[in-house]
Amino acid sequence: MVDEASVGSLPTMRAVARSVGIEFTELYNFAMRKCGYKPTRICRRISDEQEEEIRDLLKSSQLTTRQIAAKLGISHTSIKTRKRRLQRQELIVASTEQDFVKKEHRCSIHGVVAYSPCPACAAVRAALETRERALAMRKVRNEKKEDLRGNPQ
After folding, report:
1. What CA–CA distances, in Å, run from 15 to 24, 25, 32, 45?
2. pTM, whole model, 2 decimals?
């Protein structure tokens, strides 16, 4: 019956189409044309300006992804996707930022290497710095959450 896929007390459009025995797209197009149906979720591309604003907020503010999403009117999963991309990009930039000079030297951990400083040690250092930044941000977010839980208004 229709109520198996319903949300709350109202059936979804897909459930109605299934119960009537017509294609979902046919019902959807009919509802859009004749009934003035407007979907609650609209898939839309995020503009370049919004991308820049998301990037700035992720880098500078201590807001959570959900807070940024609410502020910009974008889904939190879109914000999380951009956050992961930014973190990967920062990790790549951090590992390539170091200027390497082709000069044989002796690393205390890896022995004789062709580049100075040791590329393996520089990569590990960059990864640790990125991880420390992420842990510090997580700690700040958790402290804010605890403050909000502890001080109901």
Report:
1. 9, 12, 17, 28
2. 0.36
